[in-house]
Specification:
mainly alpha, single chain
């Protein structure tokens, strides 16, 4: 029990993923600033933002909402993100436990933050939040199918293995899946699914500041909004880590390979940052078409190539 609590709260759980995600958030904001010819925030700015919300700002409850669901939704988001992070990072750090890292379990855990945002938005009673929640639900229905097809491709390439640890070991024993044509296609589909899961431009329509003024988060403030920021920090780390685990050989934590593991995470976050700084926001209809037609097509082509050994 003590070991499991350590895994959840300390390493590779809440404390580790939160701190790492905060630094990656700074990296994302710094790159964005450089692209826009600005200086950007100091290294510890994400920590300042979080603790200011947690310790200084006040949580204002919406008058016409459901206070219990409104306040519990961010808590569920953090729990889901941390659980997914533990199950992704334990195999990456070569820790074997009783849980085999079933990819489908991780897939479902990664959906909890998005559904918690929708729950909180609908519980607020604000019509703009409801619009944001509606957009988030439509976005989920579009990209999750693509994400599931990507996972199906990984399972097929790994010889019908669902265990994340086994998938990582198979790549390290041979070659990373991304070194094949089908692997590159799965990476392209996967990176756009992560972009949508993180609600980054061009898929930030549930939060569109200029249209629905933060949408799903419009009523959140203080510690409750701090938990939402914490969830986003965590997801910014664990989603790239998951992509690295299933396609890019995972982590080798010895010698120079430790630096290479860090660079792989930074590379994936850099790609996400460049995508969001070089594209305009899509309409929700355009985003649905993008995933349901083009990304699903890429994933299906990858599955066909896997069947033929490519």
């Amino acid at each position: 029990m003590a070991v499991h609590l350590f895994y959840f709260f300390i390493f590779p759980g809440l404390l580790f993923v939160a701190i790492t995600g905060a630094f990656l958030s700074w990296f994302d904001r710094k790159i964005t600033a450089r692209v826009q010819f600005r200086k950007g925030p100091p290294l510890l700015q994400p920590f300042y933002d979080f603790f200011k919300l947690l310790l200084v700002k006040e949580t204002i409850l919406p008058k016409h909402g459901s206070p219990m669901m409104f306040l519990m939704a961010p808590v569920f988001g953090v729990i889901g993100a941390v659980l997914a992070g533990v199950f992704i990072l334990l195999p990456l750090f070569n820790v074997t436990t009783g849980f085999k890292g079933d990819l489908l379990v991780i897939f479902y855990l990664l959906t909890i933050p998005s559904f918690s945002y929708i729950t909180g938005a609908l519980a607020s009673g604000n019509p703009l939040a409801a619009v944001g929640g509606s957009r988030e639900m439509k976005l989920i229905l579009s990209y999750e199918l693509t994400f599931l097809l990507v996972i199906a491709g990984i399972i097929t390439k790994a010889g019908q293995q669902f265990d994340l640890y086994t998938i990582i070991q198979a790549q390290q024993a041979n070659s990373p899946f991304i070194s094949s044509i089908s692997g590159v296609l799965l990476f392209i589909a996967g990176i756009f699914c992560i972009q949508a899961k993180l609600a980054l431009v061009p898929f930030d329509m549930p939060e569109a500041e200029t249209e629905i003024t933060e949408g799903i988060f419009i009523e959140y403030s203080g510690p409750a909004y701090g938990l939402i920021k914490l969830t986003k920090y965590i997801m910014l780390f664990i989603l790239p880590a998951f992509l690295i685990a299933i396609l890019m050989n995972g982590f080798r934590l010895s010698g120079i390979n430790i630096l290479w593991a860090v660079l792989k995470v930074l590379l994936v976050v850099l790609i996400l940052t460049l995508i969001r700084n070089t594209n305009p926001r899509l309409k929700i209809k355009q985003a649905i078409s993008f995933f349901m037609i083009w990304m699903n097509l890429i994933a299906v082509v990858a599955l066909v190539l896997i069947a033929f050994g490519y």
